[in-house]
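Hi R.,

As promised on Friday, here is the backbone we talked about, encoded as structure tokens. Could you run it through your design pipeline when you get a chance and send me back a sequence?
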């Protein structure tokens, strides 16, 4: 089992906290846009595109957290054509030196 200095772990945690704050702002924005879709269905296409972009940004924010964990704690993120899928699989694994980050990937 690999050990990490408290300073390094605090740095990783700080990076993740910054990303989590961004994700919370995005989640608030997503909730707002969803409300606008219900309130004004006449502009649904515009709101739908806005919502799609925000959801994409939310997913990539989560992916950045996973990449930070893979790089800082596990040595490197996966590579290759299916790296996104493999990253999710790895985040669902309890590695012994860190618990699973995702409770289920299915």
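Update: got your reply. Pasting your designed sequence below so it's all in one thread:
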């Amino acid at each position: 089992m690999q050990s990490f200095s408290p300073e390094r772990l605090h740095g990783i945690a700080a990076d993740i906290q910054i990303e989590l704050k961004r994700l919370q702002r995005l989640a608030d924005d997503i909730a707002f846009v969803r409300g606008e879709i219900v309130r004004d269905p006449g502009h649904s296409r515009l709101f739908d595109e806005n919502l799609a972009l925000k959801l994409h940004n939310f997913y990539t924010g989560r992916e950045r957290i996973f990449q930070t964990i893979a790089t800082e704690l596990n040595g490197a993120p996966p590579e290759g054509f299916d790296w996104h899928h493999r990253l999710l699989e790895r985040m669902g694994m309890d590695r012994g030196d860190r618990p699973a980050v995702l409770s289920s990937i299915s």
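One thing I noticed while checking it: Residues 88 and 105 are 7 Å apart (CA to CA).

Thanks again,
M.
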